[in-house]
Write a structure and sequence with these properties.
- By secondary structure, this protein is an all-alpha fold.
- The protein has one domain: Orthogonal Bundle (Recoverin, domain 1).
- Helices cover about 55% and strands about 0% of the residues.
- It has 9 helices and no strands.
- The longest helix is centred in the first third of the chain and has 14 residues.
- GO terms for molecular function: calcium ion binding.
- Keywords: Calcium.
- This is EF-hand domain-containing protein.
- It comes from Chlamydomonas leiostraca.
- InterPro entries: EF-hand-dom_pair, EF_Hand_1_Ca_BS, EF_hand_dom.
Amino acid sequence: PADCLARRLFFFQILGCHRHSAPMGQASSGLTQYDVEELISVSGGVFSQAEIEGLYKRFRALDRGHKGYVAGDELLNIPELSINPVAQRVVRLFEAANFREFCRLLAAFSAKAPRSAKIQVMFDVYDMDGDGIVGRDDLSAMLRQLAGSS
């Protein structure tokens, strides 16, 4: 439904339209073949080499200060994310993530991700206080965010 479409739009906005292959041994993005293979493994195999390379280019474009991680304000430059009512929760999950962590987190938004990974991300978004329990206060705060009153 709409939530599924929103997740896919977010995923494809992050990924961008880079769909090329690099020669074996050295990815054209600056990643080595070993890096790409490790990142495919870290992401649970949901990304191909071309997708990893596209994500790396997008990550570098988002990381405007070339710090090696993406800050919250940089993530909010993604139009589909910035208009999402739970954008601040998603940003909190991704904030200060290096590229390896970025791939691991983003993997859950892929259509190829296992259901358990998707559920874990949803749980992390709804667990507002980070105590490992989605309680009454978490749900109340989330509903306020979704309604735009927070």
